[in-house]
Amino acid sequence: MLSTLGVLAYLLTNSLLVLTAQEGTQAPFHAINNDHRRLKPILDEEFEAWINEKGFKWGMKGVAIAVTRRTKDDNGEWDGWETELKGYGVADRWGNTVDEDTLFGIGSNSKLFAALGIGLLVEDEKYPINWDTKIKDILPKGEWKLQDSAMEEQANLIDILSHRTGLPRHDVSYSRTDTLRTLVSKLRYLRPSAEFRKIWQYNNQMYSTAAYIIELLTNKTLPEFITEKIIKPVGMNSSTYLFDEAIKLNILADGFIGTETGNPKGEGK
């Protein structure tokens, strides 16, 4: 098994700690073959001792880690990848252990997949967009309406993915019942707090806009596109983009909160 907006229940092993140890040219997506491992393992007993000493000391209940590295042949040429996957600690209130298949909700790390999805469309000549394409030229007429006229006219794909539109978080402006389309439609009611392209301000709705663009251009739902173009090609066989599916798999980690003593306790799924 290989490792690297809705709710993304995704294998933490493949998301938080995918480390590329050597520089090199970009390789196409493909599953990693570990049949002939050549690199010295990183997730060894010494590392496990470090996790036990440092991580669990501060209340961490469980974690899954992946390390992905490029490999070279005898001539010093890049020839493949090797990956290590390992879980530590417990995954839930019942004490089930974390392993390489345990699913963790990764929250805003899912933005990686929206940005990567846009990048795949930019690189695909079938889609008439590039990084400088303006959002108003992608979305249907009348859907991209903003209070800042400069932002509305000039914002491009780089702007919405770089948190530089001038819009702050406005987190109470949307709910779980919103679709990507309704999230975008609500942007016209949100007041900017900075000039366009002047400062960095974290904004979730711009990544929802990116996800909406993916759905419009591909005629697929975002989970369908991400699964087809990213999850399956790289062999992330234990991963899913759907929360309901993660529940059914019965390998989803619980969330934990700290008690007054500093010891975390599970609060259920």
Automatic annotation (TrEMBL):
Segments forming a coiled coil: none
Protein keywords: Signal
Keyword Signal belongs to the record: yes
Beta-lactamase-related domain: residues covered: 57-241
InterPro entries noted in UniProt: AmpC-like (IPR050491), Beta-lactam-related (IPR001466), Beta-lactam/transpept-like (IPR012338)
Keyword presence, Signal: yes
Signal peptide: 1-20
Family: Belongs to the peptidase S12 family.
Name of the protein in question: Unplaced genomic scaffold SPHSTscaffold_163, whole genome shotgun sequence
Species of provenance: Sphaerobolus stellatus (strain SS14)
